[in-house]
Design a protein that fits this description.
single chain, mainly alpha, TIM Barrel, 3-stranded parallel beta sheet, NADP-dependent oxidoreductase domain-containing protein, oxidoreductase activity, NADP_OxRdtase_dom, NAD(P)_OxRdtase_dom_sf, oxidoreductase
Length: about 190
């Protein structure tokens, strides 16, 4: 379910989704962009009324967008939801292709110029140094940091070119040392 439906009671939504599972049209159900309260309500209604339960949640989560850790992550842990973070690379900001001096071509410059203007470039450059010293790309470290977080099932990564798809897949199996992940976590926790 891509987003909550404010017009339909969760009981009706879960009844319809349970029917789809029963018909074999879908195997499991997940939600995206639910608030913690909506996710808890859905879990409690499913248990109480015997409906299929959501097994996953999809939320924005990255090194530079960590609100998820205090909102939905505790709910995901409590209710056993697999997490599929989207915008893991912050629209390319965490790939190293954008620079303080304005370098880097990409959609972020035209679609979200405010994000670039508000970027903590000192922090981003420190991140690049950590990755360089560890011998890993920012992509590798970003994905591995996410995959090391509680309940993360996979990372939703966008791509505009075939080589980006291949590189994203490779990043999922990179072997980044734990001390590097801890250093990165500390850097972006400030």
């Amino acid at each position: 379910m891509h987003s909550p439906d404010p017009e339909t009671p969760i009981e009706d939504t879960l009844a319809a989704l349970t029917e789809l599972v029963g018909e074999g049209k879908v195997r499991y159900i997940g939600h995206s962009n639910f608030t913690p309260e909506q996710a808890v309500e859905a879990a409690e209604v499913a248990t109480r009324d015997g409906y299929e339960s959501f097994i996953s949640t999809q939320n924005e989560y990255s090194l530079v967008s960590r609100e998820f850790e205090v909102t939905m992550q505790p709910v995901a842990i409590e209710y056993g939801l697999g997490v599929f973070p989207y915008f893991p690379l912050a629209n390319g900001l965490l790939t190293g292709k954008y620079t303080r001096e304005g370098g880097g071509e990409g959609r972020l410059r035209t679609l979200k110029p405010a994000l670039l203007a508000d970027t903590d470039w000192d922090q981003l450059e420190a991140y690049q140094r950590i990755c360089d010293e560890a011998g890993h790309s920012m992509l590798d470290v970003t994905f591995q940091w996410l995959l090391a977080q509680p309940n993360i099932s996979s990372v939703i990564a966008g791509a505009t070119r075939p080589e980006q798809v291949a590189r994203n897949a490779q990043a999922g199996s990179a072997e980044v040392p734990r001390d590097v992940l801890v250093a990165v976590d500390d850097l972006f926790a400030r």
